[in-house]
Design goal:
Length: 108
């Protein structure tokens, strides 16, 4: 009986985390995909077309943060026209790959 309860609780716990986890990212594919990111996010002192919007440095950023941010831009829950357009062109796997690569870089 105890073994059955333990197994049931383990299965229930894994089912809960499956909805929040994201696919493992491929850093090498992410490295290829970020070529469009560097134009804004890789230039020191860069001011984009929306001067009231700070362009954050994304190298070394937390992987989960990057995944969530890109998905929110893609869905329109975060408002920025350029990032929305970028996000709309990305699949979930692309986002995971980009996040895996960027999070592996040293913070600058």
């Amino acid at each position: 009986m105890t073994r059955s309860l333990l197994l049931a609780s383990l299965l229930a716990g894994s089912a809960l985390t499956m909805g929040t986890a994201h696919a493992a990212g491929d850093k090498e594919h992410g490295r290829i995909l970020v070529y469009t990111c560097a134009g804004c996010h890789g230039v020191t002192g860069y001011k984009n077309a929306y001067p009231s919007y700070h362009v954050p440095r994304i190298a070394g950023q937390n992987e989960d943060y990057l995944v969530n941010a890109l998905k929110e831009y893609r869905s329109g829950n975060r408002a920025h026209p350029t990032m929305r357009a970028q996000g709309e062109s990305l699949s979930d796997q692309d986002i995971a790959d980009i996040a895996a690569y960027l999070s592996s870089l040293a913070k600058q």
